[in-house]
Design brief:
This protein has helices spanning 14-21, 38-47, 70-85, 129-146, 192-209, 215-224, 266-278, 280-306, 324-327, 336-342; strands spanning 2-5, 22-23, 26-27, 31-35, 54-64, 96-100, 106-114, 228-232, 236-240, 248-251. With 350 residues, the protein is an alpha+beta fold. The protein has three domains: 2-152, BirA Bifunctional Protein, domain 2 (2-Layer Sandwich), CATH 3.30.930.30; 154-171 and 185-266, no CATH class; 315-339, no CATH class.
Length: 350
């Protein structure tokens, strides 16, 4: 299981809701609301006055949806909510959970969160990478180990290249599909994505030939293709070319510091996998400690920002001029239309 947070979040509530529940004007096959009220979530997003109106993402599994019981799904969702909203009461935030199983049957637990604390109306940011990523990653590792799920951190699952260009939009949801353009690179307007794909292809070919043995050879390989090295970090290499308007950031094991061509050979990867599995218990303890420490810090932050907000007083229908008989909708003192106009609150979501 991996946790993904999508970049989008500035549009209306119809965007994420339509992606999750609708396909070409019809109910989406394999989509099921597990928790929350889609209409309420959409209205809260539309009523949020802040630039970031909602936060959305997915818990994505390689395992089939039918391998999980309803109780297991509920447990994972609740613990994820606890990880994000520690220190807050359930009435202080809204979240919609929608299950997808239309991608080969594998389970996806999608979530949408309006970015507003519901008691005060203050801005609520459920996830900020610099503050929350370590804690959320620890949650992911704990769930994967406890439920014996696919571990994306295993050496045998590491990708040698990252197919996405820096700041290029990932194939994330919530946006209208655009018409496909011809897959050609125009000479006077270079296609950055196509250039990066070609670099990755040649790098993999060179790796198979044994000409890429370490990071120095990778940098020499890039310079040999006519690129200038603009920035070299722990996990990536940024390159430029005179005819390109922006730099290209190359990510993946091949471009990372400490890359060793030999380590990508099958027998070495198998050995690394065995080492990884051998320290599974100690790694689990470290993840738990990281998660608990992060939870303490997040709870302190939430209590400092929202802790002085009082619970709203219950709505008293008698104070609004209703009798108990009318409030129960059993009398004829007023018309149904008049009753509906005065009854402006919504019942709790399931």
């Amino acid at each position: 299981m991996i946790v993904k947070f999508f970049r989008r979040g500035k549009g209306s509530g119809a965007g994420p809701l339509n992606y999750l529940l609708v396909t070409e004007g019809k109910p989406r096959e394999g989509a099921k609301v597990l928790y929350g009220d889609p209409k309420l979530t959409e209205q809260l997003i539309n009523a949020t006055p802040y630039q970031q109106k909602y936060k959305s993402g997915v818990l994505s599994f390689t395992e089939d949806a039918n391998k999980f019981s309803d109780e297991q799904k509920k447990d994972i969702m609740q613990r994820f909510e606890d990880t994000l909203f520690i220190g807050l009461e359930p009435d202080q935030y809204d979240i919609l959970w929608v299950e997808h199983s239309d991608k080969g049957g594998r389970l996806e637990l999608n979530f949408v969160i309006p970015c507003q604390e519901l008691r005060s109306g203050k801005s609520l940011q459920p996830f900020y990478a610099q503050s929350d990523l370590v804690r959320v990653n620890a949650f992911k590792n704990i769930i994967n180990k406890e439920y014996e799920l696919t571990d994306p951190n295993e050496p045998q699952r590491k990708r040698l290249i990252n197919p996405y260009v820096t700041d290029a939009p990932r194939p994330t949801p919530y946006n209208p599909k655009k018409k496909k353009k011809e897959d050609k690179v125009v000479e006077d307007t270079p296609n950055t994505q196509a250039i990066k794909a070609d670099i990755d292809r040649q790098a993999l070919d060179s790796l198979k030939e044994g000409t890429l043995n370490n990071r120095s050879s990778v940098m020499g390989f890039l310079q040999g293709l006519g690129f200038t090295l603009e920035r070299v970090t722990e996990k990536s290499i940024s390159i430029s070319r005179p005819d390109l308007k922006r730099n290209i950031r190359l990510k993946g094991a091949i471009y990372a510091n400490g890359f060793k061509g030999l380590s990508q050979r099958p027998e070495i990867i198998e050995s690394m996998q065995e080492d990884y599995e051998r320290v599974s218990d100690s790694r689990g303890i470290r993840d738990l400690m990281t998660w608990e420490k992060g939870m303490e810090m997040k709870k302190e932050y939430h209590q400092k920002r929202y802790g002085d907000i009082d619970i709203p007083a219950p709505l008293d229908l008698n104070d609004m001029g209703f009798t108990d008989k009318v409030a129960a909708n059993k009398g004829d003192d007023i018309t149904k239309e008049e009753y509906s106009r005065k009854l402006t609150y919504s019942s709790p979501r399931p």
